[in-house]
Amino acid sequence: MNGDFLKNVKFSVLDLATVCQNDSLQQTFERSLATARFVEKEGYTRYWFSEHHNMESVASAATSVLIGYVAGGTNTIRVGSGGIMLPNHSPLIIAEQFGTLGSLYPDRIDLGLGRAPGTDGLTAMTIRNSPINAPYDFKANIEQLQKYFSKENAASKVRALPGEGVDVPIWILGSSTDSAYLAAQLGLPYAFAAHFAPAQLTQALSIYKEYFKPSEILSEPYAMACVNVIAADTEEEAVFLSTSMYRMFLGIFTNSRSPLLPPFEPDQLSDLWTPEQEYGVKHMLSYAFIGDKATIAKDIKSFINEMDVQEVMAISQVFDQQKKEHSFRLFKEVMTGL
C-alpha cells in the first residue's frame, strides 16, 4: 500500500453518551449532540450510539431516542446504533423505530445489531422477561427484521408501518468470532468491538473475509473496527488525558462504574490497581491509540494495513469537551493525510 492509502479508509465515531463527573443527563446528551455536530463538520462518516443498561457512567440506554435527537440536530452525517442488542427487543418494534427514523432522516440511519445483552445478567432478564440463557436464534431474528423492512412484506398479516420499504442498512456487530460467520453468511457489513474486546479481532476479520457470500447488499466484504483514540498536541498530554479512560475501564474490573472522572497524573495509576487489574485493563485496551499526531498516524496505519479494514470507528473517552473535539480533529487529519 502506498502512503496515501488511509485516504480510502472511512472514519467514524462511537458514542456511549458517557456521563462525566458533575454533569446532568441533559448536559450529557447535549455533549453528544455538540460532538456529533463537530465531527460532521470535520468530515466523519457516521456517528453511532451503543445500547447499554443499568450503568451510571453510560446514558445510551434509549438508543433509538438518542439517534433521533442527534440526527435531528445534524444535517449530513449518518447516525445509527453500534448497536441495538436485538435479543432485548422484538424485531417488529426495531423495524418500526428505525423505519420511523429512516423516514424522518432518509439515507442517514444505520442499524447495527448485536447479540449481547449490553448489561448484567439480572438486568437482561428484567428487560427480556425471560432467563438470560433462554435459546435465541440471532440469525432468524435478523432475517425477520429484514422481512419487515422489505416491500414484499406488504402482503403479510403483520407489517412494520413505518418501516416497510425504508432503506436502513443493517450491520452485524461482534466482539468474538460467532457473529463473523453470520455476517459473512448473510453478506452484511461487519463491525468489531476492538475497543474493549481485542482478543479475537484478527481471527474474526479473517473468518468474515474467508466465508463472505456476496448478497444484494454487498458484493464484497466490508469490515469496520472500533478502537480507542486519544490524540493531543503532545505525547505527554495524550497520556495525561488517557488516565480518565484507564480509570473507567478499571471500574469494570472493580464493579464501580462511576461517571467519567477528570484526568490525573499517570504515575498515580499504580496506586489504583493491582498488577492483575493493570494487566486486565491494558489487555482490554490493546487497541488504544494514544499520542500525538505523528504517533497516531504511524500506529493506525500499521493497524489498518494489518487488519485490512475499510473503516475505523473511534471512541474517545476524554473528560474535557474541547480536548475531546481536538482529539477527533487530529484523528481526522491523520485519516485524511493533512
UniProtKB/TrEMBL annotation:
A Pfam family matched in the record: Bac_luciferase
Record domain Luciferase-like: where? 10-246
Q: Kindly give the InterPro entries that the UniProt entry links to this protein.
A: Bact_Lucif_Oxidored, CmoO-like, Luciferase-like_dom, Luciferase-like_sf
Instruction: Tell me the CDD domains matching this sequence.
Output: Flavin_utilizing_monoxygenases
Q: Which PANTHER family match?
A: LUCIFERASE-LIKE MONOOXYGENASE
Protein family per UniProt:
To bacterial alkanal monooxygenase alpha and beta chains.
- This chain belongs to the protein called LLM class flavin-dependent oxidoreductase
Provenance organism: Niabella ginsengisoli
Classification from the root reads: Bacteria, Pseudomonadati, Bacteroidota, Chitinophagia, Chitinophagales
